[in-house]
Amino acid sequence: MTRPTFETTDEARQGETSGHMRWVLFWTVALTVAAVGTAWLTII
């Protein structure tokens, strides 16, 4: 039988927690909305 492993919160966490990815997501969504809006207005 194997023993359970105990890890600290930092050891168990695999993702980034600095908040930079929120800005990347925000700007990606904003630029996508602008591009789709521009393309839509160009077609009409």
Automatic annotation (TrEMBL):
The chain crosses the membrane at residues 23-43. It comes from the Bacteria. The keyword Membrane applies. Keywords: Membrane, Transmembrane, Transmembrane helix. This is Uncharacterized protein. It comes from Methylobacterium marchantiae.
